[in-house]
Amino acid sequence: MGTQAPAAVILIRLVVGGIFLSEGIQKFLFPGELGPGRFAKETPLPAPGFFAYLDGVFEIGCGVLLIIGLLTRLAAIPMIINMIGAEVFTKVPILVQDGFWEYAHEARTELGQLFGSLFLLIVGAGAWSLDARLSVPPHPHMQPDTEPPLTPPNNANT
């Protein structure tokens, strides 16, 4: 898969990556409210401290990769899984308990991040990215329709 997406994809990368980076950093700066304390209150995961910090590390690392456009599709995958987990563990209970409108309000950031990450997985990093700068064009012989089809040799004896 190439990075043939338009240059404007940088806007999606900067927003999605920037939010992931910010959220990851906040898990370390405010552990009681946004890190292990929040995970202990809102998720049924064992070892909430471990998973909160693991989540923070992934959000920081993948956020930076998305911002600079390096390994963009690969970095989008754990963030998609992360956002699905956030929806299931923290937002679906709001939907069940408080209804659609409260859920829609509470889930807006996670849904934006989920669909932004899906977009980057499908479309790629775009022209203004390290992925585009580092991509190696395929060898001319590997490109379709660059050589005529093979024809059997002309053998006059048969």
UniProtKB/TrEMBL annotation:
Family of this protein: Belongs to the DoxX family.
Keywords: Cell membrane, Membrane, Transmembrane, Transmembrane helix
Taxonomic path: Bacteria, Bacillati, Actinomycetota, Actinomycetes, Pseudonocardiales
Localization, UniProt: Cell membrane
UniProt keyword Metal-binding, yes or no: no
Keyword Flavoprotein: no
GO CC terms: plasma membrane
Membrane spanning residue stretches: 7-30, 50-71, 111-130
InterPro entries (alphabetical): DoxX, DoxX-like_oxidoreductase
Protein name per its UniProtKB record: DoxX family protein
Pfam families: DoxX (PF07681)
Domain of life: Bacteria
Region (Disordered): 138-158
Extent of Pro residues compositional bias: 138-152
Topology relative to the membrane: Multi-pass membrane protein
